[in-house]
Design goal:
Layout: H1 10-43, H2 47-70, H3 76-97, H4 105-125
Helix pairs in contact: 1-2, 1-4, 2-3, 3-4
Keywords: Coiled coil
Length: about 140
């Protein structure tokens, strides 16, 4: 008979599925925010800034749900990576809220650079598998 003590249970697997779904949604919304900001500059269309702000807010919510749902099973390194990504995402959200529909190149470039840092942090946080422990 196989040893099943170390196999993840259904509750854990469901948390994993939700975690990765939320992470994917967060990354997708982050990409949309980045695209909208770049397009706002290139087309001189300030309404795209509102769209970018909404995408970034949704990315933040999805990321937080992903982290909250899986943190207890994460290793210290993973928790640190999640925390770093959350901090960078919070900074980007704060910077984005300062833009207020103006097309100030420097402000938008700052947020775009922050989004690039968040993307890197997301990639770092996603490189490690969550430890499968029985809950």
């Amino acid at each position: 008979m196989p040893n099943t003590e170390n196999l993840p249970n259904e509750e854990y697997l469901e948390k994993q599925r939700k975690h990765f779904k939320n992470m994917q949604m967060s990354e997708r919304n982050l990409q949309h925010a980045d695209k909208n900001l770049r397009e706002a500059l290139s087309t001189n269309n300030p309404s795209l800034i509102n769209d970018a702000q909404e995408c970034l807010r949704q990315s933040h919510q999805d990321w937080q749900a992903a982290v909250d749902g899986i943190s207890p099973q994460a290793s210290p390194t993973q928790q640190s990576n999640f925390s770093d990504a959350s901090m960078l995402l919070n900074q980007a959200v704060q910077s984005m809220s300062q833009i207020h529909n103006n097309l100030n190149q420097a402000e938008i470039d700052q947020v775009i650079n922050q989004l690039d840092e968040v993307k890197h942090a997301f990639a770092e946080a996603n490189t490690q598998q969550i430890n499968p422990t029985i809950i």
